[in-house]
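Is this the right way to post structure tokens for a design question? Let me know if I should format differently. Anyway, here goes:
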């Protein structure tokens, strides 16, 4: 079953331009023929990478994999001078 598009784009994802209608159609056809190769990446419950892939999957009637990024703690602290 295909998940509904319930994720909005992350503010950083909006820095990348949307594909043209022709590019989105080409991506949709490629996903229909070959499946999705890269997962849709979420950060803070929003799409950070893959919003066009997600739309193309919906148009193609294909499922997609979600991958969530979580912040890592490095254990480093700032030194004060």
């Amino acid at each position: 079953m295909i998940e509904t598009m319930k994720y909005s784009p992350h503010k950083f994802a909006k820095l990348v331009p949307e594909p043209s209608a022709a590019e989105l159609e080409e991506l949709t056809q490629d996903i229909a023929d070959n499946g999705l190769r890269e997962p849709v990446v979420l950060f803070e419950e929003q799409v950070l990478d893959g919003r066009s892939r997600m739309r193309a999957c919906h148009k193609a009637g294909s499922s997609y994999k979600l991958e969530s990024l979580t912040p890592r703690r490095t254990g480093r602290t700032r030194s004060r001078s």
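Format looks fine. Someone answered above. Worth noting: The chain has a mean pLDDT of 87. Strands lie at 40-43, 46-49, 66-69.
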